[in-house]
Amino acid sequence: MLPWVVEGGTNHHKLGRLFEMAVRLKGRSLDSLSHLTKEEIEQILKTSELLKLQLLRGEEHPLLKGKTLAMIFEKPSTRTRVSFEVGMWQLGGYALYLSASDLQLGRGETVGDTAQVLSRYADGIMARVFAHQTILDLAKYSRSPVINGLSDFTHPCQGLADLFTIYEKKGRLSGLRLSYVGDGNNVAHSLLYGCSKMGVNITLACPKNYDPNPEVVSKAKEEGKKNGSEVKVTKDPNEAVKGADVVYTDVWASMGKEKEHEERIRVFKPYQVNAKLVKEAREDYIFMHCLPAHRGEEVTDEVADSGNSVIFDQAENRLHAQKALMALIM
Description:
The chain is α/β, with parallel strands linked by helices and 330 residues long. The protein is built from 13 helices and 9 strands. Helices cover 44% and strands 13% of the residues. Helix 3 packs across helix 13 and helix 7 runs parallel beside helix 8. The two termini are 25 Å apart. 49% of the residues are buried.
């Protein structure tokens, strides 16, 4: 059990007490983990745990009964769509899937007008988009809270699920060492923000010209100084993985980068997470990947299917972490 879980009483009573403490999250939008405090992340994680325990025990928790979530998808997704849609149903609410062709955005309506209209109908908006500015504009004009389901800059819901998974497997967050190997992309940014706030030491190994955003690294280092987290960026994957408790990677060519695929395979080949590389990590390391995985590229089957791999538990935890987030803000 998480060390910060409210003690005493049934899970229903614990949830009630958590929500009494959660006033500051109600109505809040989430575009990036950089805008959450350590205490707010802890609150989301402990709510994730209680909701997951209730689900495993077959206990209903219709905390969002009668609520509606509008889900905007500029990019298709397996995990994001299913986890949000199922999550809203389990919370007693309804999720409405809206692809780019279902909306008037492609015919000239502004993001601001779309946000104002949708927020008259829905209690929350989740958007999976290409440009991060779209998330910011939705949040600016919406009456309802907006959740970033992925943008080209950050992937905060993945970051919350990752932190929850690490705690489940390791029993703590503070003092652990996470090594990320690959592209300094939106997932890397969310890991930098999340780890630095929660006291997880993080090292990223990225090829030249594929480093994470320097402003993100700078902010993570500032947070790390406050929370006892060491933040490093290197070009050497072996150096990064040495002594790691967690080894994490992502696809080399994210959605929208398909034209760069062949070039990226050439550049990233030395950054493959394989049996040789993970020997540098601790014997009880866990392997993580946000999925989908391009097996044989960024990771080998030998690692992805090993006893150290937690990739499917990690994928499942998208459901629990996002349910917690939706319940707290909606």
